[in-house]
Write a structure and sequence with these properties.
InterPro entries: HLH_DNA-bd_sf (IPR036638), IBH1-like (IPR044660), IBH1_N (IPR059002). The protein is mainly alpha-helical. 69% of the residues lie in helices and 0% in strands. It has six helices and no strands.
Length: 156
């Protein structure tokens, strides 16, 4: 990989995430079987990569943010990979479910954010907005880094 793109000396969240995530990917790759993957193995690898991305990002941010503390606590307590399907179902329900008149406006939007942002249930609206902003920035960084890694791997 291009060492300029993934400089290990920088202390930004992006570089800390990149280092941690690449280490986790190497570990996952070493565990890979040599035989062709079954659909179940592919699903398990997907969940391992998703977990590695979540852990890498939350630990790169550290304990400064409530969402990262909540995410790491859920992972430590085992409420992670198995809940991936339920999380997808919850997201579908949030966006496609019927809206009641009570859930309109800022209160309704805050209710949706509380379900989407890790640890959001325990936050007041102002903190929730701040954490949401930071969480979105980190997710965006995560996507950019993962895209760069995929581009680098596809170009070789």
């Amino acid at each position: 990989m291009n060492s300029k793109r993934f400089s290990p000396t920088s202390s930004t969240i992006k570089s800390r995430f990149t280092r941690r995530f690449l280490r986790a990917l190497l570990k996952i790759n070493r565990q890979r079987t040599r035989t062709p993957s079954s659909p179940m193995e592919i699903c398990q690898r997907y969940l391992k990569v998703k977990l590695a991305a979540d852990v890498s990002m939350a630990s790169a941010v550290g304990s400064r943010r409530a969402w990262s503390r909540a995410m790491l606590a859920k992972i430590r307590h085992g409420v992670r990979a198995g809940s991936t399907t339920s999380l997808a179902m919850r997201k579908r329900k949030i966006y496609h479910g019927k809206k009641s008149t009570k859930e309109v406006g800022i209160v309704g939007n805050a209710k949706v954010l509380r379900k989407l942002v890790p640890g959001g249930e325990a936050m007041d609206t102002c903190s929730l907005l701040d954490e949401t902003f930071h969480y979105i920035k980190c997710l965006s960084t995560q996507v950019k880094v993962m895209t760069r890694i995929a581009d680098q791997l596809c170009s070789t």
